[in-house]
């Protein structure tokens, strides 16, 4: 019998399901950067990817298993369809991890059986049983998911789960694959499993859900009340279609309302002990990192991590908060890592002080990354009177997510005005080391810059998103620019920060073009037919 925990296990699938968001594709180094931050955040399980899907995904999972899945670190998980090839790839990629988990799945709803799998119920039961046992031959920790469980016949679901647990599954995950269920229905599914799967106490019940109706977090909290002990979620709720249940919302709901949830986990109602292992002070930083690397901005009114989450404009609210924060705030902004700290680093600050502050903020940079970030910091410090922690995070994030520097922007110059035709001149260093200069006219300064860059690089692409946001308040604030390009059916993102948004825009565009160019160079390499996954 598996010992049922009196806390909630946080299973983060940002690097697997979250990466399936349109345009959110991450390279191996970006995945490793996020995985390291997830470890600092304190997640229990990191689903690092789908190893069989591509050589790149395999390498990313393997590297995360080696460098993040160390002794005392999180469990590293790899997704695998219920096939021998998928399971073998996952096992090989996870081998370096101190704690590895294979997560295998097969659909159980009648609509999936008839139209997708074209298999009978007995065939699915047999496959689930055989493949769980096969995964168990590689690792002790095996998770099984009946895809589209939310629309599966309950009696058939109980049968599949019973067989999977008997075959060695230690975690049983119940996915609401299409975000169809309501909280009451989802809670009833978990309760039914507890009451009708005879060996359910030999496994942990997990839940995975999509947010198509905006109910994913509510569904998960209802599942906790009915016996679920693992929550599969993503940072900022990113994922396919409308996304997944958001980690930050789940964790803070369990934190703020722990006295309400305590009895459902067998704890005294007045216990102040945290219900998760998450270091909540790392939440905001993790949110920002994922947003920057994926190019997916967080909406201002997003719960917990949105720009307005702790903002008060109403005079009545402002008056109340000034008198006592709890009149209109149910949690402290500092509890998620938000501070108003204006650090005393400036243009006279040395490299040692800079490195020490980055270490305090949780950044672990290589010597090259640190040197490059320090040079960027000095440039910013010359233009700003005060450099904040948020500025530092933006500088470092822009540095650590740089793609291979194939084309290098050497100069950007624009001329524009209400009675002038926006004109841009750019100079780029090409992969051969040659410096090329060109100019273009556009509908605005950024459009002119991009047209000039395109004339030099000459790689077909379509700009599908251009976003600018201010890192801090003030006329001298850093401007963060994120752009996304489409080439064929692939999307490439670029990110940069600068006090001059035209310069930031140019660097972000070159970043994205470098990713595109690197992809085109690798396209000639033979790769297996790409696999697809969903839960």
Automatic annotation (TrEMBL):
An example molecular function term from Gene Ontology annotations: 2-isopropylmalate synthase activity
Domain Pyruvate carboxyltransferase: residue ranges: 8-284
The enzyme's E.C. designation: 2.3.3.13
Alphabetized UniProt keyword annotations: Acyltransferase, Amino-acid biosynthesis, Branched-chain amino acid biosynthesis, Cytoplasm, Leucine biosynthesis, Manganese, Metal-binding, Transferase
Residues engaged in binding Mn(2+): 17, 208, 210, 244
Cofactor(s) recorded in Swiss-Prot or TrEMBL: Mn(2+)
Gene3D superfamilies: 1.10.238.260, 3.30.160.270, Aldolase class I
Keyword Acyltransferase included in the entry's annotation: yes
Residues forming coiled coils: none
Chain residue ranges for the region called Regulatory domain: 408-535
SMART domains in the cross-refs: LeuA_dimer
Catalytic activity as recorded in UniProt: 3-methyl-2-oxobutanoate + acetyl-CoA + H2O = (2S)-2-isopropylmalate + CoA + H(+)
Pathway: Amino-acid biosynthesis; L-leucine biosynthesis; L-leucine from 3-methyl-2-oxobutanoate: step 1/4
Subunit structure: Homodimer.
Similarity remark: Belongs to the alpha-IPM synthase/homocitrate synthase family. LeuA type 1 subfamily.
Function: Catalyzes the condensation of the acetyl group of acetyl-CoA with 3-methyl-2-oxobutanoate (2-ketoisovalerate) to form 3-carboxy-3-hydroxy-4-methylpentanoate (2-isopropylmalate).
Cross-referenced NCBIfam families: leuA_bact (TIGR00973), PRK00915.1-3 (NF002086)
Protein name: 2-isopropylmalate synthase
Species annotation: Laspinema palackyanum D2a
